[in-house]
Amino acid sequence: MQSITEYSDERYRGQVIELWKTVFGYEAPHNRLSLAIDKKLAVKDGLFFVALAQESVVGTIMAGYDGHRGWLYLVAVHSAYRKKGVGTALVRHAERALTERGCVKINLQIAGGNESVAAFYQLLGYAVEPRLSMGKKISQNIDAG
């Protein structure tokens, strides 16, 4: 890996979508990859990063901050770059960006069926917390695209 940089739609969109298709395989409309990018870019918070190797996207992380807590989303690493420090570097990069904004706690969720990734996050200092995660889709904000 050469570097971690802020996401640029013009330079990285296609590569990021291809990586996410491979890593996540999302099919639900609210998880449509282009929608996730468009919604994140609309926020203009500078918390979307890509890991590069020879100018190719090999990893991503999207972070969010509400003024108190931070969140990590869409942590993805190309299979050829796993277990080489790319995921750790991406998480640490996002943690620094959130810390600089005053974040006091960082949360993340792991999708059902992907629980094995918990060991990775535990090595980085994250712990399973007694929480019940709930969600509500707002269909009017999910276009048919």
SSE arrangement, N to C: EHHEEEHEH
Structural class: alpha+beta
How far apart lie the N and C ends? 34 Å
Strand order of the largest sheet: 1-2-3-4-5
The CATH architecture designation is 3-Layer(aba) Sandwich
Summarize the main sheet.
Answer: 5 strands, mixed
Q: What spatial form do the alpha-carbon principal axes imply?
A: globular
CATH class category: Alpha Beta
Q: If you average the pLDDT, what whole number results?
A: 92
Q: Remind me, CATH topology?
A: Aminopeptidase
Radius of gyration, Cα only, in angstroms?
15 Å
Quaternary organisation: single chain
3D architecture notes:
By secondary structure, the protein is of the alpha+beta class. The protein has one domain: Aminopeptidase (3-Layer(aba) Sandwich). It contains four helices and five strands; from the N terminus they run βααβββαβα. A five-stranded mixed β-sheet has the order 1-2-3-4-5. A hairpin with a 2-residue loop joins strand 2 and strand 3. The mean pLDDT is 92.
Can you summarize this structure?
32% of the residues lie in helices and 23% in strands. It is α+β, with helices and mostly antiparallel strands and 145 residues long. The longest helix has 15 residues.
Q: How would you describe this structure in keywords?
A:
145 residues; alpha+beta; Aminopeptidase; five-stranded mixed sheet; 4 helices
